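User: Please predict structures.

Assistant: First:
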Amino acid sequence: MQGVTCCQLWRKPLLPAQVQHLYRWLSTARSAPALSPKALPFEAIPSTGRSAWLNFYRLWRTDGFQNLHHAMDRNFQLHGPIYRENVGTHHSVNIMLPKDVAELFQTEGIFPRRMRIEAWAAHRQLRNHKCGVFLLNGEDWRSDRLILNKEVMGMVGVKKFLPFLNEVAHDFVTCMQRRVSKNTRGTLTVDLHSDLFRFTMESSSYVLYGERLGLLEENPNPESIQFISAVQTMLRTTLPLLYMPLEFVQWVNSKLWTEHVNAWDVIFKHADKSIQNIYQEFCLGQQRNYCGIMAELLLQGELSLDSIKANITELMAGGVDTTAMPLLFTLFELARNPHVQTLLREEIKAADSQGHQDLAKLLNCLPLLKGAIKETLRLYPVGISVQRYPIKDVILHNYHIPAGTLVQVGLYPMGRSPDVFSKPERYDPERWLKKEDNSFKALAFGFGSRQCIGRRIAEMEMMLFLVHVLRNFKIATVSKADIKTVFRFILMPENPPLLTFQPIH
């Protein structure tokens, strides 16, 4: 029942335990259809070129890695809805239509696998750290994931940490009001890029560790600022490491590898300090109220301390930029679409008038706001693709794809395709409220049982942030032009936009 309630809040997708039950039912209900003998061979799939290392060299020389989302979009326009790609050590089949993703979902099995980031795994091995669910596969992944789901994805766990997110969002607005009051114009025009990093880190730390870092104060903790810098360095150095053998990188470009390892070391050091504080209090047996996800995992005693450390550190590292960027893009789109702002503000006002004390019930009364976040992630997905390895052969567009092939779903091209969305260039949150079939169209957090483990934290954090901001400010921007984006392992603006905040009295 816990999983069903969570699904009612966001409607989709199912929790892993429910998905696994569905898999077992399907396996007994019907056997897999035989592959068509008329299917074209794998080699017939349109390709971007046979020479993987020549393709890599071209991307490297032209700084094309920062424009992978645009390159993927062009390739779909050139080759159609399916093509093969070879870049360095990376070999994949790329798809973009929701119906193809639905077919892929049927072949992922109960232990879904996505592309392994070898550089991250190598750091864990080098430093003798355990891997969390992001890097694990098979039964190890499944056992950890099912335990984590109760505190991170299920509605009972979500309700516990919602007040923490709400407190930080309220404090952020208070901080903004203080800054506005110091301006004689009565407004504040600002590049909110770094402020959003501090906000998301403050929120993540509070939810995971149960402690505030003071990042919204005028003089934030230098160690926390160092952590943010380390996360950004880790993401920046990850991208080129995806396509090259690590041994080659360590030999040819040791600086890149050293930067990557040092960044992860800072991330783990910061996490370890917070973890030790909680663990010491836990060992003392002090009576506590709810004090964050890690404390709950320790109380459950179902995961080893090393596994808890690994998973909490991954959640912390993934919860900063990957939430800050969607918030920045959402504020920009609301600033240049004031009519959407007005509709959202009216929805929030109507929800407030119902007097909900339960934050989950309040958020459940804001379908348009949920649609606005989906619309932002359609146009600006944090990760530009989702990967799976089918456990059985599959036919897509009459091409035979063998089991074990890396298949990538192009999220950026899908979100901007007129074959998938009507008027895709238009920011229209209401499109998600219509009765048309939106299955496998909102995939920014992945799909199935291997969807992003931090999904609920991110969704609730973004919703509560926007609720507090829209209650208190009108947002405007001088530039109405489309924002230019670059891919640095996550999608981000090339130049952060300037936004103007005008208090609502």
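Second:
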Amino acid sequence: MSREHKGIYTVGITGASGAIYGVRLVQELLKQSYKVHLILTEAAWRVFKEELLLDTENRDAVIDQLFGEYEGELHTHHLHDYGAPIASGSYQNNGMIIIPCSMGTLSGIATGASGNLLERTADVMLKEERKLILVPRETPLNQLHLENMLRVSKVGAKVLPAMPGFYHLPQSMDDLINFLVGKALDSLGVDHTLFTRWGEGQ
């Protein structure tokens, strides 16, 4: 018997730097009792090892270590599992976010390639006119990157670059991470208290 949930979101984590953004966002969604469909690219696992210092030999153990304590419902999908429910437009899904989004994944989405489950699900979001948030983490940007961002923006995606703000006077790395994740949750329409908003308390 499935647990009750507040809504359904798909989260993709690619090999761009900033895996902690995706991890923190999934944790927040699960903490708030959302159902989450999670897709990790092979490069994402490499970043988990290099940036988060995780032993990725046992991937199930890593997933449990990162997300096992939360109440929400988590479903992980292989990158080439085209039979996953999220690959179909008939599956009800409140939205999708790819955080961080590599330039390779952005290119695949911009061209409609659907070369894997991540790109296919993003294509479903666009054709069904559902929320698709892309969080690129690359610098500097070349003309192809910029043109691909413009292309996906024109067909309904929102591009939310991984640019932390400083007006909330961050005191730690966590504050910077939570600011960006909070902005991503805002774009999905999910309430949170991850950072102090401009003007709060005045």
